[in-house]
Amino acid sequence: MNLLRLPAFFPALAFTFALTVHAAEPAPESTAPKLAVVIAVDQLRADYLVRFRPYFGEGGFKRLLDGGTDFQNAHYRHAITLTAPGHAQILSGAFARDHSIIANEWLDRDSWEMINSVEDRESPLIGINPGEMGPAAILAPTHTGRSPKNFHATTVGDELKKLHGADSRVFTVSNKDRSAILLGGQKADGAYWDEIGRFVTSRHYRAELPAWVAAFNAEKRAEAAFGKTWDRLLAPEIYDQVQGPDDVPGETANFGFTRVFPKKIDGGKAVLSPSFFDAYENSPYSSEVLGAFAQRALVEEKLGLHSATDLLAVSFSQIDVIGHSYGPDSHEVMDAVLRLDRVLAALLDAIDRHVGLARCVVVLTADHGVSPLPELAPGHPPGRVKGADLDAACARALDAAYGPLAPGELWLTRDNLAYHLRPAALAARKITAHDAAVVLQKALRAHPAVAEVFTRDELLAAPPTGDGVLAMTRRSYNDSRGRDVLLVLKPYHFLARATGSTHGSPNDYDTHVPLLWFGAGVPKSIRTESVGVEDIAPTLSALLGIPAPPLARGRRLF
Description:
This protein is of the alpha/beta class. It has 21 helices and 23 strands. Strand 15 and strand 16 form a beta hairpin. The two termini are 40 Å apart.
């Protein structure tokens, strides 16, 4: 029966019939996944998934690679490739110029103190006394407070909470505070991270630990690793073939470890002491405990079983710690990734049992890559740059241009690979910040390790589009937290490390990361076009049927 053909004198009958037909139709079932799982692996270079793939099991990385979409040419498009800016971008889709997380820590121009990216003195830690966390925390306990206060963007989780309220649950877990907090955004129901072997949170999220977190901590899983030996999973010859020799110049021997396998997890002490936890963080046992904690959160918080989509974000930090100590071509990195593969397999199995992977969408990426050890970089001399040398060159240039300072005066303060000019010194000599910055720029460009130097005025005038170093640096530059001069070192050069490696540059080895999608709504394919990590948030939002975060700069990938 076509209601449009009913006689005009039957409007009431037509309306009543339409209501009856509508009421008889079943309500459409939501097609959105029940659970979104975002996995970030700190310092996981994209090439690790190629190098180590023959040695993966079936249930971890290989399950995602074979069963979903592998974007093989995914990069960060910002220049300062550090943990906090990377994690801030993954689920916000925003760049530091908008979200304000410009580094792991930065100089606050009001106090002239360094502050942590997730520092909040009004949000003390829950689950630990700062006095237990070492000398720095004892001297400044208020600095241990943590929240997303400094993060000026919202995330996919925030959009879920905005749309669904308590019907969506958002939880993040990590070894690092900044990783958990910045993945969660402003409205996460819970963010947990590891402090000396215990999972803690802050008052921003709740007044006390949930009973299940306290019970997990009471199991003392970190302490159970004391005295264990970490050795390679496979025959040493395999690591030699893939990575080269176990002992190479430039590797770090610390935390009671030597530069070679095997390694005893005791911090170099016969009894359990604070140094043990440094060794523990450098061992695969920290990834295993975090994976177990994520599984516990999944069950205890009933993630994936609520009426709307839930989100679980897990950030594994141990690969980053190992990469800093031994570099990307080490036996230690290879073994840590192979062991993480097993942890991922167990986590994915648990999700499958609890929710069903067919009802989930999984994203795996990293926050940045890492440089090879300078000693192993072909055709390049070791590039270990002393910050004091850069500082001295800057001071000499300013003295030559404007005359030496009086005792106790300062021209500038270095902040990572950048400088803040001191307003008092400039004002006393009627010098503009622009003119002084140009003097610094010229002096720093003369340093043999420096590739490029940008002044604040140049960065503010630069468009945040394009692929060049200037555009990438502009995307890392926030107007309110910006420095007066920023420098970029030449490839395979970095600051203030006598051994080991690091990251933070716009070079491919730091920007190129994995991007794997798996599960509901994800086609099975290999994609080679260039994509950005900023594309994750709008793509995931589309799969979940929610608006993208408002500051997201990326595009939908499928």
